[in-house]
What does this fold into?
Amino acid sequence: MSCFRQDLFTGTDVVKMIVVVSFSAVSLMLTAATPVNTQFFCPLIYCIPIIFAALWFPRQAFRATALLVAGFVIIRAHLLALGFAVDPVMTGLHTMLFFWVFGATTLFSQESHLAASRCRRIVEDTRDARFLCDPETLRVVCVSRKCADMLGYAPRELVGIPAEAFWADDSGKARFIEEMKLEGYVGNVEMTFYAHNGDARRVLLSCRALAPENLFECTVVDAGRLLGENNELIRSNGRLMELIRQTNDIFFMQDAVGCILHFSWVRAPEYGISPEEIIGKGVDALLPADLAAQNMELIRKVIEEQKNACYDLDLEIAGARHTFSITIAPYNGVDGTFTGIVGSARDTTEARRQRLACRQLSWEVEQWKELVTRLAHELRTPLQPLVGYLRMIVEDPGYYGLTKDTEAALKTCLECADQEQAVVERVVELSLLTMDYVDLTVQDVPLRDLVDAVVSEGEYERSARICNEIPDNVHILGDPDRLSMAVAGLVSNAVKYNEPPEKVWIRYTRSNENHYIMVCDNGIGIPEDIIESIFEPFYIGDARQDRKGGSTGLGLSIAKKYVLLHGGDITVTSEVGEGSTFTIRIPREV
It folds into this structure.
């Protein structure tokens, strides 16, 4: 149809064309079969196709009229050449009559309501928000349902209303009229329209003049809704593309016959695969024949049942064996018709290896736990009676008739046995921390009270001056037993590796995300080359201090393990000869 670029030929249009062509053919055949001049009314049948063409197809009406007139004149000239009595004057009069009928019908068809009747079905049935209006009065002569819904009207309520009633201000209307008069076109101009309930709507207005129909065709787009949908679409697409870029998974689409429509894999270049080259090809471009056939069977099953399918696929790529976990699902278009399948594939080769390694490691851990338990039992068994008897003898040497030298020797043996027993207990504790899961009992902990308890129970004030500078109102979340052991390890270390005047400061600060507990001393300090080693099990930095305090080399290692269980860490700053500062970092949310 001439009034729209889209939907050019409907079923009704085809019927109209057949009618015009049929009458045209009948007219020409009658002219050829009735060459007598007395048949005055015979040529008048040409007026029928001319009138129909002018009413139904105004843009093509002149061309159709010219072809009919040319055919009429050629047939008359041919008959004259054959010797028939053909009156040239009548032929000229008929020719002028045909063009007069064309002109009169064309002028009549330009009346807006008549033109709108030719376009009404397409306008009313279109999915766009569209209306037709008279260029002189700007009254609406035809409107689509979507346009009426957007403005809050029923379609019939808008017919006859001046389109200018929609404009929120006269400037928009004046601009529209001026541009339509100058160019006959307005493209995506942002304006404000009033809806039926008085709400203002920001719209994009596009209009063009339909010259043969003497109408303005206007299309309206809800700019607010379009902007929201567009922004949401951009955000969704951005999230999807970011996900695809960050994952190593394969994403693909296939049609019903297995042709690859889309293929995306970040690691494709590593294996010499070009996604662009396999688009449009069958799945056999990627898989061997047997696996391609298996894939097609699953696609057919998904199509028939309209259900997802999951399966594993073993495939050799670049000489290495890979296992992929694949999920495929049916995909339907916006109109609900089946389009194909979409799917994803995840390389689970490394995950399978890790599962096997975890099973092996789990078995080894169980073996080590059993070995540690046995060793602890075997070491504790002889140490307990040894320590008990030595302590009993040393506490009452006169009862056993010991000399001073023997008493001193036995006291040394008792100290060594106590130290050995402490080493055994610490080794067992560290082993369990390393190999077993420790469940924290997280609760609100008053930090100053916890530090005071640690200092009191360890009797550290006998060896150094302890300054607890933590405010009374400080509370942190954590396991109080484990935190006490961690603080005790650092305070014990600060007291042990100190020199007169022996002082230890315990301080606190915090940030938006962490608590910080600092244990500072004025001791011997730690050389820079060994500062990373002090948290290793059994590491002892100074043999003299070891003999003085009976160190096992496990206190700092166990303290760090307990802090790591809270999601934190321990750091150290130190100057040799000036002292050290150990900082415990505990997250505010454990």
Residues 1-9, 543-550 have pLDDT under 50 and may be disordered. The two ends are 72 Å apart (CA to CA). The domain at 439-587 is CATH 3.30.565.10 (Heat Shock Protein 90).
